[in-house]
Structures are given as structure tokens and as C-alpha cells.
């Protein structure tokens, strides 16, 4: 389903989705890939939907279990960036997954009836095993990652989950788990819709996937001179050795950033000038740095505010945790009742 459809402008008969849930592993400072690939969309969604956005720290543990030390430090850093881009705690519930213990409980219940072959055929599982070959991921926790995701989503009875195309199988598995629970016990879970989000293809400054581990990211919080320097280092059209040679924006790794920062008219001009060898890459990237800095200036200003008010960030997380916990407790009471684990035997409130 395309995002425009959600707003009902083109298909008034499309069902109106109400609650959205999405999360991100704590990786510290957010980079442009995080911003254009998710956060910018999250910010738009909060205008029309009831949004739950969470820090997926238990998910981080599935791959970082040997050295989890940095995870907790990354959490406030990441949430500071979320707030800086404009996530509004009055509109969105921002919370930390591990603060809501009910996620672990629901994960356990779902784990009881999720068939292992469902998890083994998950394409992301196989890809990640290959990508992270230097880690020992032959673990129960890593195999069960999509079950934890299902618990995250269904805990809040989300109607929709904004994901890129590669995450669609996970939402599908969540729907299957919801169906299986509803069939086995009682129909309490809605089947969430995939809100297919177009994720722009952005690479790091060296042409590889933008990733902290490659050291090739442009961070939202980079000071102007650092950002300008990184833009200067960006790989452009490698088949254009000299300015006098015609270039091709479709081969250039800087051009997708232009697309996100300039109006179509300017893009057309740059494309024509690049192909006619009238525009050199140095000047072109200078324009890009200027446009980026201008567009990110309000974000950086808000970030300075939150850096100076770190307690406010923590308060926002605590309040979000309280709101999320309320919903989670309600869902778990229904789940226990449906499965037949009567609350009266529980000694802990
Ligand atoms: S002129 Fe601009 S679009 Fe063309 S190759 Fe150079 S940086 Fe890329």
C-alpha cells in the first residue's frame, strides 16, 4: 500500500489506519540514511496517526550479546536525534523496548506456537547470517528475532507498520503469528497492514551502504564544516575523470542527495549541465552541501536545545514508557486470560 493511499486523497474507500508502530535499534547518532529512510516519514505519520516509536534495544542484543556495553549509551543519543528531527512527544509515544517487560512475556507466549520452519525460511535471517559472518549468530535469540518483532507490533495492536520492501516478510510473519494466536485462543489481535515506504537509495560517502561500522556516514549532528568536508569526499560519476567530460547523474552517488534537497526544476538544470560538462563536480557538491546545511539547520538548532536539556529527553522517554506500559499491561491481561493463565495465581502485581 502506498503512503498516499493512507491519507485517503486518492482512494477515499481505503480503510483508515489508526495506530502505527515502528522501531529502530539503538546505534547512537542518526545519519542521513536514517533520516531520509525512516525519521522523515515517522514525522509525517504522526500528523495523521497515533504513533508508537520505540528504541529496539533487545533487538540490538540479538547481535551484540557479546559486548552490549555501548547499547544503553546509544539510547539517549538516538532519541535526542528523533526529537531534533521533529518527533513530537505530545503526538507520538516514544519509548524504550526493554523498559516494557511485557514485550519479553508476549515474545515467550508467541514462541510457544511459532513453527521453527517459519523462522528458518525468513530471508532476512539468511542474509544477516552471511552479512555478519564474523559473529556467532547461531543462537535461539537471533533465530527468534521476528517473533520478538511480532510481540512489539501486536502488543500495541498496531494497524500499520511502515517498512521498506525488505522488511515486508517480517510483517507478514507478524500477521501469521496474530492469526495463529487468534485461532488457538481468542481473536484479540488485529493483523497489521504493511505501509510500504519508499526508501531512497543513499550510500555512504565512499559508495558503500551508509553505516557507522564503515565510518562513511554523514550525521545529522555533524557541524557545518564537517558536513561540507564529507560532501566534498563523496564519490561521484566514476566514469567522468575530468570536468570537461560529460557526466551522468544516474551514475553519481551525490545526485540522490540532490533529489532530496532540491526542487525538480533545479534537478533538471543540474542534470542538463552535468551531461553537457558545463557543471563540475566540485561546484555541484558545493551546492549540495549548501542545500543540505540549509535544510538541516532547524534540526541542528533543536538538537542544540536538547543537548543542553538532556533531562528533558529522559523525561520524555519516561513518560513514553509509562504510556506504552499502560497499553502493554492491558494487552498482556487479555493474552493471559485468552491462554488461560488466570491472574489470581500471580503474586506480583
Ligand atoms: S556534476 Fe554533479 S551530478 Fe554530475 S557527476 Fe558531478 S557531482 Fe554528480
What does the model show?
The chain is mainly α and 349 residues long. It is 53% helix and 7% strand. The protein has 15 helices and five strands. The protein has helices spanning 3-6, 32-45, 57-64, 71-85, 102-113, 116-120, 123-131, 140-143, 145-155, 168-184, 224-232, 255-261, 264-275, 281-308, 310-339; strands at 19-24, 50-55, 92-96, 160-163, 193-196. The strands form two sheets. Strands 1-2-3 form a three-stranded parallel β-sheet. A two-stranded parallel sheet has the order 4-5. β4, α10 and β5 form a beta-alpha-beta unit. α9 crosses α10 (168-184). The longest helix has 30 residues, at 310-339. The relative contact order is 0.13. Mean pLDDT is 91; it is low at 1-12. The chain binds iron/sulfur cluster. Iron/sulfur cluster binds at residues 236-237, 240, 247, 249, 252, 254-255, 270, 274, 279, 281, 284-285. Residues 236-237, 240, 247, 249, 252, 254-255, 270, 274, 279, 281, 284-285 line the site of iron/sulfur cluster (SF4).
